[in-house]
Amino acid sequence: MKTLKSIDKLCSEGQAVKLFAPGPVQVPTFILQEMSKPNDLHRSKSYQELHSQTRSKLQRILHTENDIFFFTSSGSGVMEACVLNLIPKTGRALMLSCGNFGERWIEMATSNDRMIDVVALEWGKGFHPEKVETILSAEKQYDSIFITMNESSTGIMNPVWEIGPLVKKLQPQAVFCVDAVSCMGGREIKVDEWNIDVCLSATQKCLGVPPGLGIASVSEKALALAGRVQNRGWYFDFLNMKKYSEKDYTPATTNIPCLRALNVALEKMLTDGMENRYLHHEKMTQKIRNCVIECGFELFPEKGFQSSTITVVKNTRKVSVEDCIQKLLETTGHRFSNGYGKLSEKTFRIAAMGWITEDDLDVFLQHFRTLFTKN
Amino acid sequence: MKTLKSIDKLCSEGQAVKLFAPGPVQVPTFILQEMSKPNDLHRSKSYQELHSQTRSKLQRILHTENDIFFFTSSGSGVMEACVLNLIPKTGRALMLSCGNFGERWIEMATSNDRMIDVVALEWGKGFHPEKVETILSAEKQYDSIFITMNESSTGIMNPVWEIGPLVKKLQPQAVFCVDAVSCMGGREIKVDEWNIDVCLSATQKCLGVPPGLGIASVSEKALALAGRVQNRGWYFDFLNMKKYSEKDYTPATTNIPCLRALNVALEKMLTDGMENRYLHHEKMTQKIRNCVIECGFELFPEKGFQSSTITVVKNTRKVSVEDCIQKLLETTGHRFSNGYGKLSEKTFRIAAMGWITEDDLDVFLQHFRTLFTKN
Lengths: 375, 375
Prior knowledge:
The structure is a homodimer. Chain A has helices at residues 4-12, 29-35, 45-62, 75-86, 100-111, 129-136, 160-170, 220-227, 238-245, 256-272, 274-294, 321-332, 358-374; strands spanning 18-19, 67-71, 93-97, 116-120, 144-148, 150-151, 156-157, 175-179, 198-202, 214-218, 298-299, 310-314, 334-335, 337-338, 347-351. Chain A is α/β, with parallel strands linked by helices. Chain A has a 7-stranded mixed beta sheet with strand order 2-10-9-8-5-3-4, sandwiched between helices. In chain A, strands 11-12-15-14 form a 4-stranded antiparallel beta sheet, with helices on one face. A two-stranded parallel ribbon of chain A has the order 1-13. Chains A and B meet through α1, α2, α3, α4 and α5 of A and α1, α2, α3, α4 and α5 of B.
């Protein structure tokens, strides 16, 4: 039996632990090798070409004509960028929260002294369009409305495809801002049709690229709102980013290796067909759900709101989650995740993000079954 | 003769343009290959080990016992972090500016609504300790004092080794914050001895690693000040970073490939000996200075303040800088840089950062001489 130490050694020697955790995900060699190519300057024709190509591909995938900004930051950096740019000091935003990442946005707003109204659901529940309709019918006119599309702490996927049009109908002045960190590239998102002004993500989840680059599609309406916001800061200032984006640049030095890897990953996705990719994720997630139920567990998220990229499992058998993760890792080199934050031992999480194949998944599920049958 | 297009093609095919520009710099294969290794989670023993090892090496190089924070951002992100954490809304900071990056800090302070006093020198001048002594002798007691150590827009290196002790003597309450983006790893910095509370940098300059990771050593005094600052935001909050740093983590997903590359780069530097590395940079920069003077140019920065990592050259021959850069790039695959911002055509810049060897430099200077002898 391999020990944990030897697993870590494998990692440091460049051999992969098979990751079924919600990011950073496993990255195939054809993408990894882009990371180690020599870089030119971030002010060069070759950079501009890379920037522009990657933007176009993301616009295709997101079904949008909006500009795409690249942030040298994690997804959390882009989340904070939205708070800084889209909540005027004298205005008000609405935050729809149903888990840890909704709470993170709330914390970002308050720590930046921005005024927000919050509707927070119990963890495990999703936003029903009827409920959202009632919320948005309030007299108050919001400057911006924030929602987590795929709440990876609870496994909830909110129906942004229904909520976006409701925002348009009931709060037409509001900028609609969607955290798609854990689903962009793994589930169809129609930015323009769904009325999404800012749709943000990062490379290390469903896009299947190493961590280090944030992404957002940003509408003209969002930029106009940013223009009315004081104290947007410098690093995440949308208007400065727009100025540079027009020249196919970012204001500061870009994470070029990650952008290059993203460009190649997107090319492959488009060649394979996005529809196929999305179906593949759904199919794999369905297999994961079946397996955990078969092993005597239950799904944590509310029915009808279950994410197609991550499965959050209720620890109904009351196993030691941490021990099970370590055991599977040490004996098979496969890793899944504990629950997030306060759900650490109450749930565990299995992701089907990025480039995991069905064969990979079958091997993992076989090990998983063995672990929970023997126990 | 190669065309620009073919140079760009070379880059995209993974062949190197030889970079004598002030970052991103050329990175040797033994570091590049770290970028393309498989990643484990950012919450794992293997990550913690990497984090902790890299911290220890940076502490050795910077001669400090202060904690080291890693930021998934460019150097500008860390600059903004300092503004957010080290200038209380009701307090006041002093910014010593002598070029573009000093001005960027000022812009960051004002765009974040923080009050600052500014002493700005004409571009090309450096901060004489006697002048700084007068400034710091003012009655006003600053919460924090900011200076750019190596101002890469003008080629000035400010004598932080003299200014730090003056801060300690004359403004003992102040947190001393140093932007060492373009010199950390290329010039000795004694953080503790020089009274530096925050010393910040990024990977893509003298540390000779691809872009995407910011670095700062942060003293207890700086953390105590941050504790008195409201509205530090989330992404760059020093206190949150400290909390995670104690577990060898960062609050959000780290740019793991870049951290792994940095760890290997630092290991090599320490094995080679930092003193040797610094002498090597000095020697190379002296060669560059001699060459440009021989070609009929003059040095831009004030005598006695010339950087040992970047040479900013006054375009006394009034050549078209842009044309010369393109010509050298297209005919030889070597790239130097135009002047920064308003100095774009009035100066040009040649860097000796990272891993450039003397042989590489000699070839570059030979091409440079040919270009300017023929012209």
